[in-house]
Design a protein that fits this description.
Layout lengths: L6 H7 L7 H17 L3 H11 L3 H20 L4 H10 L4 H25 L5 E12 L10 E13 L7 E10 L1 H18 L2 H9 L2
Antiparallel strand pairs: 1-2, 2-3
Pfam families: COMM_domain (PF07258), COMM_HN (PF21672)
Protein name: COMM domain-containing protein 2
Organism: Zootermopsis nevadensis (Dampwood termite)
Length: 206
């Protein structure tokens, strides 16, 4: 089968087509480094200066190459299918050979990195809560203590049984002030997830 990439990924990876094979080899190393440790802006800055382009162009090119390698491993492309897919992108036969050698040599490592990225962690299923107020005690007769009790249900898919899952209930109790703080932290995390850096990484693995 021939691999079909999205148009934006094709555009990002097209930057590598006019480059000599030694530069393409460097990008292969940066793509593998991306899978191992994530993006390295300083490295992209250095490469951008050498090629006289913006660092974002380098990072997009690395992301496009990562996507090519990831999708090839996901679909378990044979060496022949990978070579044909690369040629349809516009690479020369010499560049195709460089990419094929890299793909053959690092296929297992890329697959291992993918398996770590796709670990099925527990995720939200349901939440029940109730609001409680302790009006007084023998020691403090005029104190009002509001508490929120929550029953959080998490669900985890069972790897050995397709479609099966297990659920776990966790009982939590907090006061309104702490709950507001937790909410603010979660909202900040969601906001960061919508940022350019997070979207760029997500696009690389689609």
């Amino acid at each position: 089968m021939l691999l079909s990439l999205k148009e934006d990924h094709k555009q990002h990876i097209s930057v590598l087509i006019p480059q000599p094979t030694n530069v393409l080899q460097d990008f292969c190393k940066m793509a593998l480094d991306f899978l191992r440790k994530g993006p390295t802006p300083k490295l992209y800055q250095t490469a951008a200066q050498k090629l006289d382009v913006q660092p974002e162009v380098i990072q997009n090119a690395v992301g496009g190459l990562v996507n090519l390698l990831v999708e090839s491993c996901k679909h378990q492309l044979s060496d022949l299918d990978f070579r044909d897919s690369v040629l349809t992108l516009g690479f020369s036969e010499e560049q195709q050979e460089t990419l094929e050698v890299f793909y053959k040599g690092k296929k297992q490592e890329i697959s291992d990195a993918l398996s770590q990225l796709t670990l099925d962690l527990p995720h939200y299923h349901d939440l029940e809560w109730r609001f409680e107020v302790q009006l007084a005690s023998r020691a403090l007769q005029h104190q009002v203590t509001p508490l929120i009790t929550m029953n959080l249900t998490l669900e985890t898919k069972t790897p050995l049984a397709s479609g099966s899952s297990t659920r776990k209930n966790i009982v939590l109790q907090t006061d309104p002030t702490n709950l507001v703080h937790i909410t603010q932290v979660l909202e900040a995390a969601l906001l960061e997830n919508r940022g350019q850096h997070s979207r760029r990484i997500q696009r690389s693995f689609k």
